[in-house]
């Protein structure tokens, strides 16, 4: 079974945070063309960087985010780390991104803080880097650390992507013991939250255990919601299972699939 590898899988979970933060505190709003300097407050610098980025002025965005980050603005650190990870407006530098994510993670987060999303995202990004390592840097593959970080995010914050990645590591024995039953538990939680990848893998597992119709239904439902980059491996799983199933089971599974998202339990 082939499933995709994400370098920093949690980034998309919190992309809307930039829009939320940029739209708050109206008293701080200012025109992107107005003067801003490194002496400006961190939130003003962040908002300037956000507007500059949205207008395609990425060099100005990087500069503003960097000054705001130096003043302790977590959202700016997160945005800057993502830009380095993507090579977006800067030369791609995974080690630089790793260092910034590590700074965010080392700060911790207070319960209910508006920085919680950035903190969780940083942990997920670090897990992805530890899982693969960063060539040419001091960051080497550390599967145990990656698994621990996924477990922290999955158990403490209930993030479906972390639950899915943790389950994958448990199924393959990466960073610890192989545990199909524990993996199924995490996949079940993630698929109840609508995670297509978890739904596909969970469906494949129960199909192999003999729950043909239910397993096929989950795999079929996952295909309806998959991201384009993930659809191929999910389709492979479903087609392999369909080739082994009876015609009656296929027909019933296809009929049940639309109900999966409406009634996730």
UniProtKB/TrEMBL annotation:
Keywords (A to Z) from UniProt: Signal
InterPro entries in UniProt: EPS_Regulator, Sel1-like, Sel1_AlgK, TPR-like_helical_dom_sf
Name used for this protein in its record: Sel1 repeat family protein
Organism of origin: Ciceribacter ferrooxidans
Signal sequence region: 1-29
């Amino acid at each position: 079974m082939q499933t995709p590898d994400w370098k920093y899988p949690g980034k998309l979970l919190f992309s809307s945070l930039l829009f939320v933060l940029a739209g708050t505190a109206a008293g701080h709003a200012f025109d992107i063309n107005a003067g801003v300097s490194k002496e400006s407050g961190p939130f003003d610098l962040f908002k300037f960087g956000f507007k500059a980025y949205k207008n395609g002025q990425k060099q100005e965005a990087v500069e503003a985010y960097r000054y705001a980050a130096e003043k302790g603005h977590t959202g700016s650190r997160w945005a800057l780390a993502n830009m380095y990870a993507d090579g977006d407006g800067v030369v791609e530098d995974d080690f630089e991104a790793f260092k910034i994510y590590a700074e965010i993670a080392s700060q911790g987060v207070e319960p209910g803080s508006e920085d919680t999303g950035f903190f969780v995202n940083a942990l997920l990004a670090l897990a992805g880097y530890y899982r693969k390592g960063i060539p040419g840097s001091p960051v080497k593959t550390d599967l145990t650390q990656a698994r621990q970080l996924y477990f922290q995010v999955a158990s403490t914050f209930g993030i479906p992507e972390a639950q899915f990645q943790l389950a994958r590591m448990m199924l393959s024995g990466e960073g610890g013991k192989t545990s199909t039953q524990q993996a199924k538990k995490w996949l079940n939680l993630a698929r109840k939250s609508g995670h297509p990848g978890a739904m596909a893998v969970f469906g494949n597992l129960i199909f192999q255990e003999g729950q043909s119709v239910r397993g096929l239904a989950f795999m079929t439902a996952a295909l309806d919601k998959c991201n384009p980059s993930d659809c191929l491996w999910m389709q492979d799983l479903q087609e392999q299972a369909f080739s082994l199933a009876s015609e009656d089971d296929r027909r019933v599974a296809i009929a049940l699939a639309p109900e999966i998202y409406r009634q996730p339990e």
